[in-house]
Write a structure and sequence with these properties.
By secondary structure, this protein is mostly helical. It contains 4 helices and no strands. It has a domain of 32 residues.
Amino acid sequence: MIWCIASLILSTALILVGFLLSAAGSLEKLKENFGNTSKTTRLPIITPDGQMVDSVEDLELLIEVLEHEFEEKEKEIESAKTKQESAAQRLEKLTDTVTQMKKGFLKRKKQISKSETECTQLKSQIEDYKERKKRLREEINSNPKRYDNAVDEYEIVKNFTVTDAL
């Protein structure tokens, strides 16, 4: 049984070697193809539009196109950075303006509050004086003789003081 398995393996190996020799064409080519396992293969260069680069001229053209695209992207980045810096400066100025407006608003708010307080005080004084005026009129109306005597005495004192001063 072992002889059968061994002869089967040996015959398969001979058939495989015969096939490889016939495919390679000669023993030297077979050794060349399978003898150098450290041989590296380079993948072809394919452009973004799907074309394969076959020659040095095509590769140089591709490099020029890519360098041009790179320069365009650098310019685009610089432009974007400039715009960003400009926007940051405008935003800073706007922030300063908003701060100044807030300060002005708070100042006006304090002025309004102060004016409202003063208006309240003036209104209170007006009401107080109106109340005093009302009481004086009531007092004068309740005792007109006394008021007439007081006015006469005031006129005498006033005249006396004015003539003495002359």
